[in-house]
Amino acid sequence: MKNKIINWFLWVGLIVIVAIIPKVFGAYYVSLIVTFAVFAVLSVSLNVLLGFTGLLSFGHAMFFGAGGYGTALALKHIAGLSLLSSVGIGVLSASVLALVLCPLVVRVSGTAFAMLHLAFAQLMYVLALKLRGITGGEDGIGNFPIPPFTIPGVVSFNMKGVPENFYYFAMIVLGLSVWLMWFFTKTPFGQIQVGIRDNAKRIDYLGFKVSHTKAVVYVVSAAFAGVAGSVYAIFHNLVSADGSLGVLVSFQPIINTMIGGVGSFFGPIWGTAIFQILEEIIVRFTDRVELVIGVTLILVIMFAPQGLAGWITTLKQRFFSASSHKLEKIS
Amino acid sequence: MKCIGKSVLIFLCIFSLFSLTIYSPSTAMAAKAIPGSMAEKVPKVNAAFDVNKMGNMSDFDPSNPIIPTGDTIKIAVVWPFSGPGALNGEIAWIGFAWVAHDINKRGGIWVDGKKKLIEMIKADSMSKPDQAKKICERMVLQEKVNILVGTSGSNIQKIINETGATHKVLTVNIGSLADELNDATNFSRYNFMSSDSTEQIGRAMAYFYGQIRKKEKKFYILCQDYSFGHGLAEGFKTGLKEYYPEAQIVGEDYHKLFLTDFAPYLTKIKASGAEVIYTGDWTPDAGNLLKQSRQTGIMTPFANIFMDEPIMLHEVGVEGTKGLMHIDHYNMPNMFKNPGYVKYYSIWHKLWETKWKTAPFNSTLFAHGTGTIGSWTQQIYWMLSVVERAKSTDPEKVIKVWEGDTYKFVNGRIIKMRACDHKAIQDFEIAEYVTPEQQKVYFSIPPYHWFTGASGPGPAWLVPAAKALPWIDQKLERCADKNGWGE
User: Fold this and answer.
1) For residue B351, is it within any domain?
2) What is the domain count for chain A?
3) Suppose B145 and one of B76, B79, B196, B234 were both cysteines; which one would form an S-S bond, judging by CB atoms 3.0 to 4.6 Å apart?
């Protein structure tokens, strides 16, 4: 009961903090937080595959990009499209792409799964560059109209040129996505996911269809990567091959997850936050950001292979076992 | 009778001397002689670079620039300073640092009621759109810069312009040439495109081949696959239709930015029988393309705009670089006959020889300060001249002065800002690369050649502005019913 009350207080506190950020900090930090939220959702969506199902993808950017391009193309070509519908189209694009790929990819795992995704992501990247008439090639699609967020007859918020409004919209959409993914992992289906990660054969013997389960997880993960990509495209009013489909966009969530902790649901969010903060500090002293981040990654892999979340758990266990050992001695 | 004869003789002598004085072929006069040139169209400019007013540059070192802080005019230099396009950032940086050093040595610029120094801030775009967006926002919201200046890559410049438009900050485009940056869709009052533009370059090159050179007829277009490359190709094709209808495009290809293997394209070029390869590639693509073409035995000349980077030219050597046809947005025929320019050039070159000892500024790339370096440097001078004349950093006041403004570069090049769409009008020089021994025709001061290890500009021709006016988008309300001169 006590824990529940504390949890409620924590959640209310977090919501209040998120709500007042634009009032306290300037537009620049608001932009940083939106970027953080986008990549946090992308990283969590990757972790649904990697941490919970044991599937490492080197091509998660293709779903991020599909979401972005889907939204940008919809807003460019469909007059009068609402903001939420455009995000919906982005999510749909990523989901359809995952549906097309899943009959093939769910049959493989390990290195084959990772490399197959790298290949597909590169294919998407090259297609985005080559289909200039549709995707804008190297220029990408920019300056597309951004509709206001409207609840008919109730309220309408302008999204272009008002960073504060977009911040609230993005935080709601992305926050809801994280919550849905968290909820997903807590369902019985989510437990099967973990079972597949730990021992796929046993799950098969238990009568569950492993490949079907993987396919559902795959599409769900892609859909949320699509949400992130869609919001990112609207946020920048631009979607480009390098910014959305590049190999670095695929590796970014992997690194975030490694730093934050692969097994933990919130680990990738910590990882994203650490990176954002690190980058923000480093860039004030040197433009060799990648170098410092690379060194950080090496240190984490060497000394905290379970990431920040794992390190905190280890510390807790040590602290707990030390205090319990003390208690035992006293008694 | 004898007396009358003597008087007539004296009169004739005086008249001849007078005529010679009036019509002596100075640089300005030579430009004036060409109909449709800027010298003819703009007989009097609003402002001009005066070499005699320059500050003491003897302690200028681009590796260790003196950057003032405090209440300054803050200018963000948005360029790639890391990644494959980093060299472009260094080229830009030396220009910015040079101008800031000069202006600061003069005591700064009188704006908003006080004299302010110039503070340049590096903003690394890494040639990536999302990074560019992030860095531009940081510059505007955190560093509170007065002006954002960019860049190599029209896709990145578009982001700079959009950021400026959103936050009502002045943006200046000195390095991106895509026409669409200032079309009806993308035009922003806060952006000025003081650089040249793609259709201008394409049409000027076509005019040169069709109306001046009249030799080669088979052209192969190979450009970078983004708005700049496509715009440049379109300009060339439009120009050929207009000035050289009998010319033939034997192939057309677009490659990814920062490509390392040009072999597939070169094979096609070889098979096409092209007499000229038309390319807009910039560093490092320009260098890789030239090197690989020569290594594969393709000696076809390139009609180019950025294939003038000396380090790469030296790697290819004199023979491989001979015959390149280079269109320049800075150099002017006979500029070494202009004493003001020679003085300016000497200051730069002497510093390069004696003071700049750190890479990359000690390399041959920075030896002369001409070409792109010269163009960018003079555009920055123009921008600050406008700010000085506006007596303010307030974008609205700067816009008022810059629209329709005319300025003369140190080498005599005249440039005009078309008021309706903020695009620059100027003449172009096209030069043929020849061996060092033949360069005296252009480089008319000692040592009478650019370099000894590579070919360089020799015979040069002026393409008058009227033949290559920047494309005007009639859909842009401000430009409706305006001609190419914006009138």
Assistant:
1) yes
2) 1
3) B76
